[in-house]
Amino acid sequence: MNKPTLLILAAGMGSRYGGLKQLDPVGPSGEIVLDYSIYDALRAGFGRVVFVIRREMEAAFREQVGAKWEPCVPCVYVFQDLHDVPAGFSVPPDRAKPWGTAHAIRAGRHVIAEPFAAINADDFYGADSFRRLADFLSKPDCPHAHCMVAFRLGQTLSEHGSVSRGVCLRGADGLLTGIREHTKISRHADGTLWDEPPGGEAIALTGEEPVSMNCWGFKPSLFEELERSFAEFLRGVGDEAARTEFTIPAVVDGLIRAKRGTVAVLETSSRWFGVTYREDKAAVQKSIQALVASGEYPAQLK
Fold first, then answer.
1. Angle at 237 between CA 233 and CA 242, to 5 degrees
2. Which fold has domain 5-293?
3. Closest CA to 94 of 203, 226, 233, 240
4. Is the pLDDT of residue 232 over 70?
């Protein structure tokens, strides 16, 4: 069986962060967050990397990322393009940005024919996450058996603003039954966690909830599901077509409800951290320095 592929979603600009956070150094030798993901994936047994980027960032991305990793692992670049829609559909004239995370994963459909993991470029997932993904994806299993790595909600917050998280709902068999979106989670001064969506009812959370951080393992059959779901999405958005996003949690939820596939929830001992706001960068740097000091990573990845 072919080694699984790592698909890295790196096309998005960090609007709250205020810049191209995917290429912002956080490691002691100038490493960026996705360098650690690639390093962990390679030692877990992944065999190829596919980057989803925008065409206008290709030169900078190849110079900073490709030049480092192409000598070590086959690298492929694909582009998330607003106008990449199924035949028979058109882009609304007032739509300014691509369609979301599911649309970004769909950009890899012409170059991926093996099991693959899909991750965010600007999230740090940890070595154990990639080991669990590689183990699941390397098994000769049902072509419609997918997986996701779940992190503990309390370890995925920012001290500098609210976050949006999808809480994983599981059955007794450990399979995902759905994802409940919480859009404005923050920790109050008394230590309690609340989701306080604008205009909605506040919901108390414990911090122990397993959440999705867009760390997925998919069989290539997912691309058929994406085509079907994207067409349904475009037919259904109507007047909201200029703003609504086509997200991977929504696609996964539809797949599960229609019984066209399963998603195993893989809990990890890895600690997630990421740069949601520019002020988060110092905490990420400190966390990486601690992992280097403990021997988890070398001071210079390459």
1. 110
2. Spore Coat Polysaccharide Biosynthesis Protein SpsA; Chain A (3.90.550)
3. 240
4. yes
